[in-house]
TrEMBL record:
<dbReference type="InterPro" id="IPR013041">
    <property type="entry name" value="Clathrin_app_Ig-like_sf"/>
</dbReference>
<comment type="similarity">
    <text>Belongs to the adaptor complexes large subunit family.</text>
</comment>
<dbReference type="Pfam" id="PF02883">
    <property type="entry name" value="Alpha_adaptinC2"/>
</dbReference>
<feature type="domain" description="GAE">
    <location>
        <begin position="696"/>
        <end position="813"/>
    </location>
</feature>
<keyword id="KW-0968">Cytoplasmic vesicle</keyword>
<keyword id="KW-0653">Protein transport</keyword>
<dbReference type="InterPro" id="IPR050840">
    <property type="entry name" value="Adaptor_Complx_Large_Subunit"/>
</dbReference>
<dbReference type="GO" id="GO:0005829">
    <property type="term" value="C:cytosol"/>
</dbReference>
<comment type="subunit">
    <text>Adaptor protein complex 1 (AP-1) is a heterotetramer composed of two large adaptins (gamma-type subunit APL4 and beta-type subunit APL2), a medium adaptin (mu-type subunit APM1) and a small adaptin (sigma-type subunit APS1). AP-1 interacts with clathrin.</text>
</comment>
<dbReference type="InterPro" id="IPR002553">
    <property type="entry name" value="Clathrin/coatomer_adapt-like_N"/>
</dbReference>
<keyword id="KW-0813">Transport</keyword>
<dbReference type="InterPro" id="IPR008153">
    <property type="entry name" value="GAE_dom"/>
</dbReference>
<dbReference type="GO" id="GO:0016192">
    <property type="term" value="P:vesicle-mediated transport"/>
</dbReference>
<dbReference type="InterPro" id="IPR017107">
    <property type="entry name" value="AP1_complex_gsu"/>
</dbReference>
<dbReference type="InterPro" id="IPR011989">
    <property type="entry name" value="ARM-like"/>
</dbReference>
<keyword id="KW-0333">Golgi apparatus</keyword>
<dbReference type="InterPro" id="IPR016024">
    <property type="entry name" value="ARM-type_fold"/>
</dbReference>
């Protein structure tokens, strides 16, 4: 002890434990518990002494032996002495019974197979009137129910007995022996409520039997003392985790609302955490406590603020988005820097999903950029630019708001980047002006004012290389937007200063733009406005950007996102399109419905390049779409993406123009249902047979196979983003083992820190015998690290009841996707 070797005292302790004197035994057993553990070989010498003392006539010696066994028992000792402990559970002595129950817990943990030996004895403990025996017996039963589903089914018959005990405790008068600040035996009440929660989970009959007593506990327990709050908290958890009545759930959430008014930060923290878990059960009941939750944002404790912030974002919906966003923006203004990155992302996502109109959406993101522009993620900035391009009716309003913002503050990086980009695109609208009610937009802006602003940003202390690239490009764009020669000459002189810049990218742009002044006939066409950007899905830490509100399970409306890649290319070349085929249909291999015009458009493109059979795409020239992206400072592009692999002829033509229509070869193409699901559409059949849809070369990687449920993964590299892997998850019901339909299938997954995961809804939550259910996982893996998944699978089968299992998967070989 205290760092000194104590092995010399081990044998002495064993000698004292074997002594007939009680004082020697007590000292010996105490020393044994301190100096020995289950890994010591000398412990085997103690087994015989323990066996003798467990059968001793003196109850205190029996108690010493049980206490020692319960603290240091190994698996071998547990097997050897299990029968003695089982016999002592049936003793008439209360002192021995409660110690034997606690000792049995240690034995069950060490050797789970011995659990069945204690089931009958533990059942008899529930009928004991002694609170100590009842407390230790319920603790033993709880341990067994958690460890074994069969034991759980057995003890569900004891729910009425537990309810009766709890009712007696609640309605009992004052008892000095068990009273704790006016509450009768709170420890026993909590143990009973916790066991009821385990027994009533996913079982309607048991839940109905305990509803009345839970309501009685919730309404009669005193909440002014911490003892009462602990009972109320366990009651709330039991109500939430069992199929209780709606009225009871509302009562439980109201109790948590009262906890938020408590002065104790621990109680408030627990209430906020529990409300976060309860919001999926009854969001309307939680909404009633919105004001007090928002008050918690101003709490001095940072952990309280963090939990309140998470809960506030969960409460946002179409009806309250204005109010909650206003409060969150007010908090963003004074929030700690560590909150700002996640807050800006979540506010932008909430505005995207629930915005009442486009103008409010733009104003909200602009407010975020003003308050915390240095903490806005790149994806949010790209989404804002995309929103501006899609909202043509507000171009004048947006560009004037951004101009006014930059005049007052250029310290926020994302605000400056977005402002420069928008001014470069819509500078002519800014100069023309418009009728707006805001005073800040009423000022007349000249071409010289705009160039002065951009020049001042270049000379300012916050200009970095990326910002300089944006400004140079914006200035060049403005030469085709502004009408006076003076403006073009000023821009030309500014660009000339950067032709000798030590930053290679800036020098190259400046030289190329300067040379472009020699070609006034094509310069306006080269510098024309960017086309409307397509709505693309962005995976951000499990969140979905530019998607409908969560909860919608229907097909994603791909057509609403804009024209397909083929249509954009054809429009560029002045070739009309027949319309009708959406992006989802193309990617899923659906036949075109546009008629002969649409069917022949790709052939027309092929003819432009000298025939329809092009063997391979050019690998030396840069696609024009990528060149346009570079022209604008790489906004939304990924310069590190690998070049696409050689593909079929039609795809070659589209890929030549940067259309991103590359597809896999037929031998490795994914099934139609998988691609449709990856594109956001649900498979045609909820229980489709994956084996019939897959091609012969489609590889399945087994993940899990237990209790009649088999799960397999099929990986596929995303065709639109080389950093994303789509994994088709197939669930199959093996009827011979499961015994019938597998119900309530829940599939949870987690990835490593370098990856981000998005899970699409499964095609169904039940798997009929012999059929399949599918679900698509999208994993963003920009660092190309090996994919490792930790899985939690929950389901119910006729033969095995409710099953909750864990698994890990790292089985994709190199080059599997």
């Amino acid at each position: 002890m205290l760092g000194y070797p104590a092995h010399f005292g081990q044998i002495e302790c064993l000698k004292l434990a074997a002594s007939p004197l009680f004082s020697d035994k007590r000292l010996g057993y105490l020393g044994t518990m301190l100096l020995l553990d289950e890994n010591q070989e000398v412990l085997t010498l103690l087994t015989n002494s323990l066996k003798n003392d467990l059968n001793h006539s003196n109850m205190y010696i029996v108690g010493l032996a049980l206490c020692t066994l319960g603290n240091i028992a190994s698996a071998e000792m547990s097997r050897d002495l299990c029968s003695e402990v089982e016999k002592l559970l049936g003793s008439s002595n209360m002192y021995i019974k409660k110690k034997a129950a606690l000792c049995a817990i240690r034995i069950i943990r060490k050797v789970p197979d011995l659990q069945e030996n204690f089931v009958q004895r533990a059942s008899s403990l529930l009928n004991d009137r002694n609170h100590g025996v009842l407390l230790s017996g319920i603790t033993l039963i709880t341990e067994m129910c958690v460890a074994s589903h069969e034991t759980l089914l057995h003890f569900r018959k004891a729910v009425p007995v537990l309810v009766r005990h709890l009712k007696n405790l609640v309605s009992a008068g004052f008892s000095a022996e068990h009273d704790v600040t006016g509450v009768t035996d709170p420890f026993l009440q909590i143990k009973i409520i916790r066991l009821l929660r385990i027994l009533g989970k996913d079982h309607v009959e048991s839940s109905e039997a305990m509803n009345d007593i839970l309501a009685q506990v919730a309404t009669n327990t005193e909440s002014s003392k911490n003892v009462g709050n602990s009972i109320l908290y366990e009651t709330v958890l039991t109500i939430m985790e069992t199929p209780s009545d709606n009225a009871l759930r509302v009562l439980a959430i109201n109790i948590l609302g009262k906890f938020l008014s408590n002065r104790d930060n621990n109680i408030r923290y627990v209430a906020l955490t529990t409300l976060n878990k309860s919001i999926s059960l009854d969001i309307n009941a939680v909404q009633r406590h919105r004001n007090i939750i928002l008050d918690c944002l101003r709490d001095a404790d940072i952990s309280i603020r963090r939990r309140a912030l998470e809960l506030s974002f969960s409460l946002i919906n179409e009806s309250n988005v204005r109010v909650l966003t206003r409060e969150l923006l007010a908090f963003l203004e004074v929030a700690d820097n560590e909150f700002k990155p996640s807050m800006t992302t979540k506010i932008c996502l909430a505005a995207e999903r629930f915005a009442p109109n486009k103008r409010w959406h733009i104003d909200t993101v602009l407010r975020v950029l003003k308050l915390a522009g240095n903490y806005v993620r790149e994806e949010m900035l790209a989404a804002f630019i995309r929103l501006v391009t899609q909202t043509s009716e507000l171009h004048g309003y947006t560009v004037q708001k951004l101009y006014a913002s930059l005049k007052s503050d250029i310290s926020q990086d994302s605000l400056t980047l977005s402002g420069v980009w928008v001014i470069g695109e819509y500078g002519d609208i800014l100069v023309r002006g418009g009728n707006y009610e805001e005073e800040e937009l009423a000022t007349e802006v000249t071409e010289s004012d705009v160039i002065d602003l951009l020049e001042s940003i270049l000379a300012g202390p916050f200009a970095n290389q990326v910002l300089r690239e944006y400004i140079i490009t914006a200035l060049m764009k403005l030469t085709s937007r502004f009408s006076t020669a003076t403006s073009s000459e000023r821009v030309k002189q500014l660009l000339a200063k950067f032709t000798t810049s030590i930053e290679v990218e800036i020098q190259q742009r400046a030289v190329e733009f300067t040379n472009l002044f020699q070609y006034d006939d094509i310069r306006p066409a080269v510098l024309e406005r960017m086309p409307v950007m397509e709505v693309k899905e962005t995976v951000i830490a499990g969140e979905r950007l530019n998607s409908p509100a969560s909860g919608s399970s229907g097909p994603q409306a791909s057509a609403a996102a804009g024209p397909s890649d083929q249509d954009l290319l054809l429009d560029l070349m002045g070739i009309g399109t027949g319309g009708g085929t959406t992006n989802a249909q193309i990617s899923a291999g659906a036949p075109s419905t546009a008629g002969s015009g649409q069917a022949n458009n790709v052939d027309l493109l092929a003819d432009l390049f000298g025939g329809s059979n092009i063997s391979s795409p050019p690998t030396t020239s840069k696609p024009s779409a990528a060149a346009v992206n570079d022209l604008f400072g790489g906004l939304g592009s990924n310069s590190s993406s690998p070049p696409p692999a050689p593909v079929a002829s039609n795809a070659n033509i589209l890929d030549l123009l940067g259309g991103g229509m590359a597809t896999s070869t037929p031998a490795t193409s994914p099934p139609a249902a998988a691609v449709a699901a990856a594109a956001g559409a649900r498979p045609a059949s909820a229980n489709s047979n994956a084996s019939s849809q897959n091609s012969s070369s489609q590889k399945f990687y087994p993940v899990y196979s237990k209790q009649g449920l088999a799960i397999a993964f099929t990986p596929q590299r995303d065709s639109t983003n080389p950093n994303v892997v789509n994994i088709l998850t197939t669930f199959r019901n093996e009827e011979s083992t499961s015994g019938g339909t597998i119900k309530d299938v829940q599939f949870h997954a987690a990835v490593t820190k370098t990856q981000q995961l998005q899970m699409r809804p499964a095609s169904a939550n039940e798997v009929a015998p012999g059929s399949n259910v599918t679900q698509v996982l999208k994993i963003a893996n920009p660092q190309k690290t090996p994919i490792r998944l930790r899985l939690k699978i929950v389901y119910t089968t006729p033969n095995h009841g409710a099953v909750s299992d864990f698994a890990e998967f790292a089985g994709f070989p190199e080059g599997a996707y």
